[in-house]
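A further point concerns the way the authors explain their paired sequence and structure data. Since the whole study asks how a given chain folds, the encoding of that fold should be made plain. A single example would do more here than another paragraph of explanation. An entry of this sort, consisting of the sequence and the corresponding backbone structure tokens, reads as follows:

_____
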Amino acid sequence: MKKILVIEDEWPVRTNIIDLLQLEGFEVISASHGQAGIQLAQEQLPDLIICDVMMPKMDGFEVLKTLSQNPSTAAIPLVFLTAKAERKDFRQGMELGAYDYLTKPFTRAELLGAVQAQLKRQEVITRLYAAECEQTEMLANQVRDLQQFNDAQDLLLNNLIQELREPLSNINMAMTMLRQATSEEQRDRYLKVLQEEFVREITLLNQVSELQKFLTPENTKLLRQFNLLQSGLGHKSSDHKP
């Protein structure tokens, strides 16, 4: 049930509007002056406000200006009631953010038409805002996923560098020792180390190639869930000590 706030200082007019709206199934709250209307609007957050322009102490323009400065009430549509139909008054109200004007005296059809039009307009705005929020959240999730993907690629590269460093170091050491070998037995030993470390290097590179095929933004979450990106690229073989 839509809630409508009526701010009108003339009791007969206010009562008539309330009766018409309640017969149409609306929940209606009302205030007899601007300050009370502002308080009700902030407390009840109605779906629509119908406000008289000419009121003592605080007129409708001041009410609208005050409501517009409060984030909780700034988006509530407001329809002005006025006995004045001068162009400058309409312009002033629209510049302040009024959604519509009803000139007194108005008919039941005019009142309900203005109410339904503004409620429908507000529903469209609400749906568009919800869709925009959903799209924004979706884009934020995509950006986060891409960032995680980039982080995963960086981690993969760092792991690769760390994993490849050890066999390369062993290969370099074995080559140095091979050049200094004085017996056939020593040369065979260092050649075996070179062969083993070469195979190990190729195995690591193949693992990286396969992991790169699997590493997609969609799979990054799964990899992180099981900490596969943190566990290294391969199983380290026992250290060779040439």
About this structure: Residues 108-180 form the longest helix (73 residues).
